Amino acid sequence: MNVDIHHSWKPFLESEFEKPYFKNLIEFVKTEYKTYKCFPKGANIFNAFNHCHFDAVKVVIIGQDPYHGEGQANGLCFSVNDGISHPPSLINIFKEIEQDLGIPYPKSGNLMPWAKQGVLLLNATLTVRAHEAGSHQKKGWEQFTDAVIKKISTEKNKVIFLLWGGFAKKKKKLIDTSKHVVLETGHPSPLSANRGYWFGNKHFSKTNSQLQQVDVDASVIEWQLQ
């Protein structure tokens, strides 16, 4: 079965594509997209992998579900298409970057430039039915994305995993913390942020500091967007 995913990932994930759960998942997704309006667009489902190639992965940010509102989801967690209003969690991400790095709040909520620099923006579930949060959970996506996290942990070194909120923190068990860096904080959603669990985490400056500790000549992540 052909999955539209960048060739750099195929040696590590091809075995997953052949497993019964993944074949069932793809059939489920095809049926859902034919029957209901679903997000992101079919061509964008694997955008996280297509815009951040395996060899380039330096940082992993784990989200839960794609946005389920019209025109929002673009296949990268927390990211929205150009011209779309920023959802509350994304607003809080940008506010923290502003406080942490003194970077001005951006117009665009499209995080594609981060992906191009080696930030894997991975939702645990890659698809969703319009206006029905969590509607594609427990259909196989989580098994696949857990396998992705394990592969990165096994095959790479010194990757920085940013785990935001309870759901993401549960993924820590998939990561070899003896060779990777794990930074944890609350979720950027207003519920968590307003209780004091998000702001002040400085994950963006800490990430760049960690990257430079690994390799003084390494390119840090340019978090600034337009």
From TrEMBL:
InterPro entries: UDG_fam1, Ura-DNA_Glyclase_AS, Uracil-DNA_glycosylase-like, Uracil-DNA_glycosylase-like_sf. It comes from the Bacteria. Transmembrane segments: none annotated. CDD domains: UDG-F1-like. It is an enzyme of class 3 (hydrolase). Its EC number is 3.2.2.27. Residues 50-211 form the Uracil-DNA glycosylase-like domain. It is found in: Cytoplasm. It catalyses: Hydrolyzes single-stranded DNA or mismatched double-stranded DNA and polynucleotides, releasing free uracil. One of its GO terms (molecular function) is uracil DNA N-glycosylase activity. Pfam families: UDG. The active site is at residue 65. Its main location: cytoplasm. Keywords: Cytoplasm, DNA damage, DNA repair, Glycosidase, Hydrolase. NCBIfam families: PRK05254.1-1 (NF003588), PRK05254.1-2 (NF003589), PRK05254.1-4 (NF003591), PRK05254.1-5 (NF003592), ung (TIGR00628). Excises uracil residues from the DNA which can arise as a result of misincorporation of dUMP residues by DNA polymerase or due to deamination of cytosine. Belongs to the uracil-DNA glycosylase (UDG) superfamily. UNG family. PANTHER family: URACIL-DNA GLYCOSYLASE. This is Uracil-DNA glycosylase. It comes from Winogradskyella echinorum. The lineage of its organism: Bacteria, Pseudomonadati, Bacteroidota, Flavobacteriia, Flavobacteriales.
